[in-house]
Amino acid sequence: MFYCDKKFIGNVIKTFRKKSKIKQSELAEKIGISEKHLSKIETGKNYPSLDNFLKMADILKFKLDDFGLNTSISSDNPDKNRLIKLIYEASDCEISSYLKIIDAIKEIIR
């Protein structure tokens, strides 16, 4: 189950910040927001923007799994696992190329 409740998200962020021994003011400065705004995020009054959330994840080293989102890509099919890994590691340009190739193959198969 994925937890997207403001209080839950804020609590996870606060817990990881404290584990990292980073003060609220330090984290706020590193991600480019006010300490007051970070406080509102940690107390569940505001959601962080996606950009700020990703910055926090990088600094505090939390994963989406910590929010109840399973990011596992394992399957019984090794080819599927390899393809999923390629997609996750691909640049936007590579993904666009992959889609064009897959679309072309699908047209041939039909």
Description of the molecule:
The protein has two domains: 6-67, 434 Repressor (Amino-terminal Domain); 78-109, no CATH class. It is 65% helix and 0% strand. It is built from six helices and no strands. It is elongated, with a radius of gyration of 19 Å. The protein starts with 5 loop residues before the first helix and ends with a helix. 11% of the residues are buried. The mean pLDDT is 86.
Quickly list its features.
elongated, mainly alpha, 110 residues, 65% helix
Topology diagram in text:
Blueprint: H1 6-19, H2 24-31, H3 35-42, H4 50-60, H5 78-89, H6 92-109
Helix pairs in contact: 2-3
Helix content: 55-70%
By CATH, the superfamily of the largest domain comes out as lambda repressor-like DNA-binding domains
The main β sheet shows up as: none
What would you call the quaternary organization? single chain
Any idea of the CATH class of the largest domain?
Mainly Alpha
Number of helices in the DSSP assignment: 6
Annotation, overall tally of beta strands? 0
Rg calc: 19 Å
Task: Return the structural class.
Answer: mainly alpha
Shape estimate:
elongated
Task: Provide a brief overview of the structure.
The protein has 110 residues and is an all-alpha fold.
